[in-house]
Design brief:
alpha/beta, Rossmann fold, 3-stranded antiparallel sheet, 9 strands, globular, ATP binding, transport
């Protein structure tokens, strides 16, 4: 079987401080995967290192059995909203159109069919009425839907989203979850950095539980158990208990 993602002996550090220690896992194709863990656990660091957006100290990463460079055009990445420049003068439709660029080749410009495809992707996320708006004029949830549309326009096989549900409205969240599940059902592989544990069991097929090292990986029913979750969150829960205020 070719795995969507295979990671061996991954180490990542910032300025000499270890952020991820000896991460090893494999994930089958066609899964919707949540990357969870306490604050500072290295969730976004893991996703970015898998895509070589930040350097790793060591480790071997394969995507669909190949190197990242071989598969780069088949990977769509949606960063955190806080990482985006929302003042950039670009319209919604042109933002989505950027998703078609990896398939165009050097010095080629998008044609009518590419613009029509971008508009279709906007329709899929319910944002077609905003196609001529400047991206910064939208709400947080609308912006996130537009960037998901850009990812859809890429026709990728692997979708990676970093905290897509932070600061968005419930309608946008439900729309995004529905589309991610549809992608999964089409055989695509989806990785999502996620912080809301209350929804993890209904959103994902499998979980990667981190706290700077891999605590557990596998189906939700196997990972999302008190004795497993406690291994990742124990230090945080202990700190909260020690600092409780009695009223």
């Amino acid at each position: 079987m070719t795995y969507a993602m295979s990671v061996q002996n991954l180490f990542v550090s910032y300025h000499g401080n270890e952020a991820l220690h000896d991460i090893n896992f494999t994930i089958e194709k066609g899964k919707l995967v949540g990357i969870i863990g306490p604050n500072g656990a290295g969730k976004s660091t893991l996703l970015k290192s898998l895509l070589e957006l930040i350097p790793k100290d060591q480790g071997v990463i394969e995507i669909f059995g190949k190197s990242l460079n071989e598969m780069r055009k088949k990977i769509a990445y949606v960063p955190q909203r806080s990482d985006m420049d929302w003042t950039f003068p670009i319209s919604v439709i042109d933002t989505v159109l950027l998703g078609t660029y990896p398939s165009l080749g050097v010095f080629r410009r998008p044609k009518k069919k590419h613009r029509e495809w971008a508009y279709h992707c906007l329709e899929k996320v319910g944002m077609e009425k905003f196609s001529q708006r400047q991206i910064g004029e939208l709400s947080g949830g609308q912006q996130q839907r537009v960037f998901l549309a850009r990812a859809l326009a890429q026709k990728a096989d692997l979708f990676c989203l970093d905290e897509p549900f932070v600061g968005i409205d419930i309608t946008s969240e439900e729309t995004i979850v529905r589309i991610l599940k549809e992608l999964r059902d089409e055989g695509k592989s989806v990785f999502v950095v996620h912080h809301d544990l209350s929804k993890a069991s209904t959103y994902f097929d499998e979980l990667i539980l981190l706290n700077k090292e891999l605590i557990e990986v596998g189906p939700v029913r196997e990972v999302f158990r008190p004795e497993i979750m406690m291994k990742a969150y124990e230090s945080q829960l202990t700190f909260m208990k020690q600092n409780e205020v009695t009223v």
